[in-house]
Write a structure and sequence with these properties.
This is HTH tetR-type domain-containing protein. Keywords: DNA-binding, Transcription, Transcription regulation. It holds the Pfam family TetR_C_1. It is a single chain. By secondary structure, the protein is an all-alpha fold. Helix content is 59%, strand content 0%. It has three domains: 83 residues, Orthogonal Bundle (Arc Repressor Mutant, subunit A), CATH 1.10.10; 120 residues, Tetracycline Repressor, domain 2, CATH 1.10.357.10; 39 residues, no CATH class. Helix 7 runs antiparallel to helix 8. The chain is flat and about 65 Å long. It starts with 8 loop residues before the first helix and ends with a helix. The relative contact order is 0.08. The N terminus is likely disordered.
Length: 261
């Protein structure tokens, strides 16, 4: 990003430094020799470390070592580990956004949005360990938000309603992403898919879960639904949950449409 006359430097300085770096707002005086390193190279190296060994393994010294430079060389580009984490978080949000297709059902588009977000958690397990400290501020993250708002462009909603639905759907994406991430890790570590359904523990739970203490869980457990010991008529639980969220949005849209009629 080039800083033009329309950019107010004082206002821009209110942004966290890592966010400013993500937008390409850079102080030239902090640069090293041209071509020596780049912010992208540093961020990519940090992401590779986090993907391999977890977020806790990321340090400025570890990243510098992986690139063959001194730690001080990195500080010419990125002034702190906190800024590096901000840049990493935004970098992995640079995901392919599908082109707009006229007439495509909005429910299908929202489904694509959800599973694309889930995929970020699956590809980068550390992403879910990042703390949420504010609304998204980085350009890649905002691009994803813009995609969701595009889907709702013609909804009969005000801006705050759209943002609330964005939060609702994104929160479900995050929840599903964390579940999928943890399942992936457990399977890589040798667990079986059956361990997640609890089918291997059904018999033991039926001895431990008594109706006097668990009056509502007990009949579901005994029927085999809690541990997937019987056929599931609703299919994948995460897909089912998403469809019910979309049902709620659709119902609200219908109500808003009737109210405006």
């Amino acid at each position: 990003m080039e800083i033009g006359d329309e950019i107010d430097d004082e206002i821009i300085q209110s942004l966290p430094s890592g966010v400013a770096l993500s937008w390409g707002i850079i102080k030239p005086s902090r640069r090293g020799p041209k071509g020596e390193l780049s912010i992208k190279k540093i961020v990519d190296a940090a992401i590779a470390i986090a993907d391999s060994d977890g977020l806790a393994a990321v340090s400025m010294s570890r990243v510098a070592q992986s690139l063959g430079y001194t730690t001080m060389s990195l500080y010419r580009y990125i002034t702190s580990k906190e800024d590096l984490l901000v840049l990493m978080q935004d970098a992995v949000c640079d995901i392919p956004i599908p082109s707009e297709v006229p007439g495509k059902p909005w429910r299908e588009e929202m489904g694509e949005y959800v599973w694309a977000c889930v995929d970020v958690f699956r590809k980068h397990a550390w992403y879910g360990d990042m703390h949420i400290t504010s609304v998204p501020l980085g350009p890649n993250n905002l691009q994803v938000i813009d995609w969701m708002l595009r889907i709702m462009r013609d909804f009969p909603l005000n801006d705050f309603e759209k943002m609330s639905f964005l939060l609702l759907v994104s929160s479900y994406s995050r929840a599903c992403g964390l579940i999928a991430r943890d399942m992936d890790k457990a399977i890589r570590d040798g667990a079986s898919p059956e361990a997640f359904s609890g089918v291997n523990y059904g018999a033991a739970l039926k001895q431990l879960v008594k109706p006097d203490r668990f009056p509502h869980l007990h009949p579901i457990l005994m029927a085999g639904a809690y541990t997937d010991e019987v056929e599931n008529p609703i299919g994948n639980d995460l897909d089912f949950g998403l469809e019910r969220i979309l049902d709620g949005i659709e119902c609200y849209l219908k109500m808003k449409g009737e109210g405006q009629g």
